[in-house]
Amino acid sequence: MSNQLSRRSVLGKVGAALAAVMSVPAAKAAKAVVQKVFVTAGAPKGYDPFQHKWRMAIDANRCIGCGLCAEACKTENLVPAGPYFRTWIERYVISRPKPGSGEARGEVFVDCPNGGMHGFPELPVPKEDVLHSFFVPKLCNLCEHSPCVQVCPVGATFDAPDGAVLIDPHYCIGCGFCIQACPYGCRFFNHATRTAEKCSLCYHRITRGLKPACAEVCPTQARIFGDLKNPVPDDPLQQFYQNNRVQSLKPHLGTDPRVLYAGIDKEVM
Predict the structure, then answer these.
(1) Residue 135 to residues 81, 193, 215, 217: CA-CA distances in angstroms?
(2) For 11, which DSSP code?
(3) Most-buried pick from 23, 71, 185, 219 (CB within 10 A)?
């Protein structure tokens, strides 16, 4: 979509397209048309979202908490300074249980100073009292059933056919409903643009054959990115799924996240 595309012209395109698909049930037609019109945001001309299925996977066993991913994301996507992040790193420290408590684990400490961009302070407990510690990269979970999409009153947040969950900044009215609805804390309000923001998988990059900035700079390849419809030889994404016990965050919510993790503990929120 052209950055100069106005809401009026978008609605005009939607209306014209709807008139051409009257044989399709109305609700299904409207959803398909909105996806067709909006999905080109940030993508090159000729990009076909129906020919791709983008996925991100996270191997927490490999994450060293360097924060390069969060820093690269800030730079690449012009994320405002301060406590605003499209992706960030959390540290989980699980202490040993107190003797005689009968518990398998002790207290859990979670911190995320400045999104993890500049490292982490000393452990909150003595090393000898640490049962387990690990880092967890966080980002938009690309939910199959996205609460943010469901609550957006104007359709600015939408599911793209290629698996991305996107925001059209030209259509967003800044109501904040999506920020409140996201159970993963992945959205924030950009006071400069007066719109909601979140991880877009660096849509402007992946639709041009590049990796998201966070995956590009990860020194340990803890972030695995790929296209399920166009696997490459020895595809890292397929190998990740095959070789790991993968899980999603907060599966009990029924959002069906499409970002899957390996190496995380039950304490991860």
Answers:
(1) 23, 32, 16, 17
(2) H
(3) 71
Residue 101: what pLDDT?
86
pLDDT score, position 33: 37
- Position 14 scores a pLDDT of 38
Using alpha carbons only, what angle is made at residue 140 by residues 40 and 147, rounded to the nearest 5 degrees?
85
Determine the pLDDT at residue 213.
96
Can you list the pairs that 187-190 forms with residues at least 24 positions away whose Cβ atoms lie under 8 Å?
187/148, 188/84, 188/85, 190/80, 190/84
DSSP run (H or E) holding 139: none
pLDDT at 266: 82
Between CA 246 and CA 254 the distance in angstroms is 17
Q: What is the 3-state secondary structure (H, E, C) of 146-189?
A: CHHHHHCCCCCEEECCCCCEEECCCCCCCCCHHHHHCCCCCCEE
Whole-number Å distance between alpha carbons of 226 and 56: 7
pLDDT, mean of each 10-residue run, the chain (269 residues): 40 41 40 41 83 97 96 96 96 93 91 95 93 96 96 96 94 96 97 96 95 96 96 93 95 95 88
- Give the pLDDT score at 24: 41
CB atoms within 10 A of CB 21: 15
CB 196 within 8 A of CB 167: yes
Q: How far is CA 120 from the centre of its chain?
A: 23
Cβ neighbour number for residue 22 with a 10 Å cutoff: 8
CB atoms near residue 41 (< 10 Å): 23
Contact yes or no for 58/89 (Cβ under 8 A): no
Q: How is residue 124 written in tokens?
A: 């909150």
